[in-house]
Amino acid sequence: MITLCAAVFAQAQTIHVDHKFWDGYSLYTVKEIRMGKYIYMTTKQDEELTLEKVKEGEFKIIRSRQAEECPFGAEFGWRVQFIRQDGESFLAIRKPNGEVMYTLSQTTNNEEECEEMQMIMGQEEPWNAVNSVLLNRAYLQNYVATKRELRILRNKILAYHGYRFQSKDLQEYFGKIRWYKPVNDNNAIKLNIIEQTNIQLIKSEEAERPDDLTYANMNGIYDSLDENMSSVSRISLNSDGTATWCMVGSLNYTEYTYRIEGNTICMKAKGVDSEEECYEYDADTRTLKNEQGAVYYRQVAE
Asked: Which pick of 116, 119, 223, 299 has the fewest CB atoms within 10 Å?
């Protein structure tokens, strides 16, 4: 087993007023430090983050002045490390089990410059960046579409060092890549702090993603409803990649083929030179929604 929770406190540094931290969405600026212990940050959008110092280089999230909810999907009391190592300086928010679930990179840039850098980062293939660039949740959420892609990306970090995989699918996937050379002893592999953090961050994002859509699990009937909750039109998705659309009660229907891209279903009418019609699937509400806002609800067999 490779140890991912390396000791990094030795290179921790102190947070000062006007220090800035970028999370991929917003720029947090330290506005006030009280009693050398309580650190108050805010953004232009009035988002707040307040930390209480636990020991050198380690803090915990506490309630802010205005914000009722804990930011970043974290919980009050979760630990935050301020890490300076391997050319990076960043905040790492950790779950109670110690795994990193969110990162904020220290920067001297303003918000516009940070947004530009985030866009440039988005133009880089995740595959190329994951071993050398500290990732953030915004990047993973916006540029890595599926849960499977997250898993491949996470294990690419290990593959780069020649990690010998036990999972057959990973053996087959990386075995086809020219530079992958499995080592004899996985315990000899040493990961830097960027790689360690990225692995944990990607794993955290994986845990929150719904299972990837497949033709098998999308197989079913989806109805649009009127104000009386009566079915109006119907999409039927089949497990073989075919589909139909019809008005409920009508004998006429249109045949489609469809493909799956992330959480999106893209349908194309058979025998017709037309553009695809795409529907975003929401796993929580079990609905398909097109660009025009029409919503189709998955029907449960009685």
From this structure: 119
* pLDDT tens-digit series, residues 20-79: 999 999 999 999 999 999 999 999 999 999 999 999 999 999 999 887 899 999 999 999
Chain-centre distance of CA 184, in angstroms?
Answer: 32
Q: Would you say the C-alpha torsion 296, 300, 301, 302 has a positive or negative sign? A: negative
Q: What is the distance between the alpha carbons of residues 150 and 16, in angstroms, rounded to a whole number?
A: 35
Classify residue 133 by burial, with Cβ atoms within 10 Å: 0-12, 13-18, 19+. middle
Return all residues near 31 (Cβ < 8 A) that are at least 6 apart. 17, 40, 41, 42
Cα–Cα nearest to 46, from 32, 26, 21: 26
Q: How many whole angstroms separate alpha carbon 55 and alpha carbon 59?
A: 7
Residue 57: other Cβ atoms inside 10 A: 19
Tokens of 93: 């928010």
pLDDT at 121: 84
Residue 88 exposed, middle or buried by CB count within 10 Å (0-12, 13-18, 19+): middle
